[in-house]
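Methods: example folding runs. The two proteins below were folded one after another, and each record is reproduced exactly as written to the output file, sequence line first and structure-token line second.
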Amino acid sequence: MNIATFPARTRDAIGVALHGPVRSISDALRRLDRGIREVTPFTPVLGAARSLLALATLLTIVFTPHDQLFFRSATYPDGVTCDRMFSAISLFCVWRGETAGIAVAVAVVVLAAVVSGYLPAVTALPHWWVAWSFNLSSPIPDGGDQVSAVLTLLLVPILLLDRRRHHWRLDRGYASRRPVVKVVAYTALVLCAVQVCVIYFHAAVGKFAVEEWANGTVLWYWFQDPTFAPAEPLRTVMLGVVGTAVGGAILAYGSLLVELLLAFALVAGPRYRAVMLVVGALFHLGIAICFGLWSFSTTMLAALLLYLVRPSLVPFAEAPAGAETPASSHDRPPVPAP
């Protein structure tokens, strides 16, 4: 080592250590700014998530017997809860009792329109209204209904700005849109991602204090419940698995681990998110098969798409058919998906 140059090298090393993070943050902000300006959030993935959210509610309404979905009781003689704040504007409280069929028909038409994907800007508010009304007014809402009501609300701002004829195509004219449109659209997607992250984090951490989850026996009790237990022979097989200390612990603790890993995906890279998309989809498929919660699992698959799949790159504005792409767009280096 040359002693004479040691102080200079030390100063250089200190300078890199001090200014490196600043440059990294600056570079990250520039990449983020460029991504928001050039990478469209109006993608078929957004459309698929919307269709899955609507499909989940549609399947619940169409395939669940009406007297079970809106069962009457002394507390709710019409089968719907209409004594909560803002219940007066709920779809299922506007038409109830003898006119309940109208509410169901309206819901089916709206949800079918959303599933089709056409006119997302027009169907955004009606979709939220149906999802919110069902979650508010059904006497037996589940977690999937709550997630759907929240996500459809968070998606309203971006969808009102969606000028596509249907949500199965990419908006290639996004680069020319006004900055306020881009900020609002990305803010909506970020809020959806944060919401899904919180859902999985709370789902895992909230179980830590439950004794049955802590000792790994919780699934044994669930498979004993005739309401949620799967049909034979799957029920016998699953009882044999969770009836053992090892099997019960693996499935119970494995579920908690998957939920935690999904929560951490908010700040993870693309490879991690891709793996967790597959893991999360299989996780919810298993829940659907074992407990029959198909609408819930469909809703959560939509949530995973919004959470884990980032918008696609569109390096140039939409051009007329047959027009050549501007040379400048080819000269730009590709922008990695955020």
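Second run, written to the same file directly after the first:
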Amino acid sequence: MAKLVNRLLLERLNLLQSFILLCILTLFAVLVMITLEFAWAEILRERFGEADWLLPSLVAAVLLTVAAGIVAMAVLFYRWKLKRPLTILMQASKKISANDLGFSISYDSRDEMGELIAVFENMRSQLEINLKALWRSVEERKQLNAIFAHDLRTPLSVLKGYAEFLATYVPEKKLSEEKILDLIHTMNLHIVRLENYAEAMSSIQKLEDTPVHRDPVDIIPFTALLNDSANQIASQFGINFASSIDNADSEISLDAHVVMQVFENLVANAARYATSQVNARFIIREASMDIAVTDDGPGFSNEALNKAALPFYRGDMWDATEHRGLGLYVCKVFCEIHGGSLQVENGPQGGGCVTASFGSQLINS
């Protein structure tokens, strides 16, 4: 009966209206009970006469009836209007305190408690959205830091190689002044790259935000610089490197630092899997520059062909200090922000083949 009254009446009323209704019902019930008590007292008076205990008993009964009515009204008001929403809010608060936001709450009532629970649910939903955004931001930043740490190794390794080369041959005076100046110029280029990395780490929140600055680049000296870095990388793995170029007498517009970063990642990845040889082919077209890097290793597995460009994918290789599964993912993102793409496949003669394409503009040929 109480549930029926609750559904049909009390759920449609706000708290004040419900309280007034319960007061009226309680007052009516108390008046009925007091009337019955007076009738009962009259019966007792007719039976026992004017007894001394009759009036005090009647007063006590009336006071108890009023007190019981007030208590009953309070209990009914709490059970019908407050208990369930307060329980819902308490349980939800405990879950939020435990950082558990994967739930929802609802309360089918038009009163203030229903509105409060609706507001609380909106707050929980917004907290969940904000917390997921925060987690995503933290993960993106962690991934970005890992990517920067990964890509800093290549220019550092190249600089280390040049420093060792100079330290070995300069004391013996086996290098001409022109060669020394050329090596210093190349080292300065890599130092500029390191400075750009350091600046980028403090300014971007995710890899896709890396700025692309296209400038005219002369292909012959640029590819020579790329080949020089590739030889340094390949020598660290005991691998030979060779390259070829199509349409060499060209000048194109592209971001040299982005292309260098992608190319060095491709060479490092190929050298890691190669048996003895890594090859690169530079293809200059009207609207793009393609770099195909191949190796004579076992090639990509079927799984790797689909997942090699995913972040932190290592395949069957595990090296916690050097190989973090980020190289091809970085290449893919940088190719895309440069208006190109990354293609992973196996070569016709075996071995892996990764082709990086960069959107560019052919200035002259």
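Comment on the second run: DSSP finds nine helices and eight strands in the chain.
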